[in-house]
């Protein structure tokens, strides 16, 4: 673990530890594991979490996967942002985007922020769902109707993990 904590390119990456066998007497608790691994000393840009679980009963697994999907994967954006800043990019965060700025040619050349400030850029990245990006932020009449229909009919209910209910012993 000490080697992983100090690799620069992993700075900002998520770390989820599933502390299995919590249903067995004598298993180390998540807090004890964090202490043994000295996780508090880890780079502060690194998101981490230890979730007590039991693969046998399924307890804790959904909690861990939910953290990874909802909170942990956000650190992927942070890692990309850190790399971009090192390369000289200017990144604006915690600002509402009202609309994409689109040239007559159809090329996106920036965004209009919620406060009315235009921000022009050669490259625009969106961390929003395709629906939000193409249906809500893109001006009307920019995209073809069949593309908009495909966006409207897409299922965005899962971010990567399918939730399952676990019973005693094996998944249902």
TrEMBL record:
UniProt entry keywords in alphabetical sequence: GTP-binding, Nucleotide-binding
GO MF annotation: an example: GTPase activity
InterPro entries for this protein: FAD/NAD-bd_sf, P-loop_NTPase, Small_GTPase_ARF/SAR
Residues where GTP binds: 20-23
Family: Belongs to the carotenoid/retinoid oxidoreductase family.
Protein name from the UniProt record: Uncharacterized protein
The species this protein was found in: Ficus carica (Common fig)
Lineage of producing organism: Eukaryota, Viridiplantae, Streptophyta, Embryophyta, Tracheophyta
